[in-house]
Amino acid sequence: MSSEPTATPDAAAMAAPTGPVAASSASSVEPQARTSPSVTQASGPSTTPPSSSADPLLIAIVLPQFHPIPENDAWWGKGFTEWRNVAKARPLFKGHHQPQLPGELGFYDLRLPETRAQQAELAREHGVGGFCYYHYWFNGQRLLHRPVEDMLASGEPDFPYCLAWANENWSRAWNGSDREMLMAQNYSDEDDEAHIRSLLPHFRDPRYIRVDGKPLFVIYKADHLPDPARTFARWREIARAEGVGELMLAQFEWSGAGSGADPRHVGLDLSIEFAPDWRRLGGKHFTGWKSRWAMKLGLLPKAYGEHNFFDYNRMVDGVLAKPTPDYPFIRCVSPGFDNSARRAQGATILMNNTPQRYRRWLEAALAWTRRHQPPQRQVVFINAWNEWAEGNHLEPDATHGRAYLEATRDAVKAQAVAAASPDGDRT
């Protein structure tokens, strides 16, 4: 969710990424309809199993940019979806994994219920217990909302979900052109009320994910709100008055202002780590004089000097070395990052990511969650399920097939075994 048409967090500007274009043992971290004395029940059955410290809830972030909308038709050309960026990508050097083309799901359209059902089935089979869909609201105007609203109306698929408000302006900055504004955020008290009322039907849905019995709603950049504490207080007041009860309000913790600060100071309940963490990338590659000379002589690809290259393993090590925050915090992992499909220059590419290295990171995040989180926050986020133009997806591709999904499943199984062992808490 950024200035890109997708509004998803973009790492090209390292100091200030532009952002996205969008349970206790059977008790507290769960979809609304799970059976638990601590969870307010909604009508309708759910077949989703409960979470526990031995089986945390994995929530994968979903980009809804895979269907055309009139606004994108006007801004980017008739029929534009994220697939246009994905398909035009080209390798920048020998062995570069571009274009990253979809595997068994194909170039899908999220307006189709069959597509959404296939996604849910794949996720469930591989240990992902819920989706977090980017939500785009601009002073009463919604964008890219059809898949989630169709899902709400139909009740299908029966798969847990929550929403994350991608509260950034949309401009043309994502593709390296000028900063022509496409859609701006305009905040007001009236808009705060209209916004939260539009979300109440989701919060009441049996599938909606709750943490500690409260509907989870995520704000991408809380520091962009003029008075976040006022906004969040009003939201809570309306939710109570309308019978939804208490809300679980969270922010994605990125590298901007307020990152690392206690979210409770502005009226939030917790922070969710946003991966990759741009503050922990490690040293940039191909910046020394030897590399520059090699590029000048044609011994190294010129792309090494035109884009930002970092090592995936080094980034993971940096993230895992972060001190444990003294405020409520949920961890997040990512299978990779490469947004060269969107950016002809200045892309950010994490090199050397593999399913095995991703599994190592996820296992570590699951172990950290088991050790450090209370029962009501046994949750780990994954960024992302389908950020194809950022090289950041669990969905099967034409090269790796289901390898990243299988790594997810294997990490969950390994941590379940560790949790059941006598020394499980020391892993």
UniProtKB/TrEMBL annotation:
This is Glycoside hydrolase family 99-like domain-containing protein. Transmembrane segments: none annotated. The lineage of its organism: Bacteria, Pseudomonadati, Pseudomonadota, Betaproteobacteria, Burkholderiales. Residues 1-28, 43-53 have a biased composition (Low complexity). InterPro entries: WbsX (IPR032719). Residues 29-42 have a biased composition (Polar residues). It holds the Pfam family Glyco_tran_WbsX. Residues 1-53 are annotated as: Disordered.
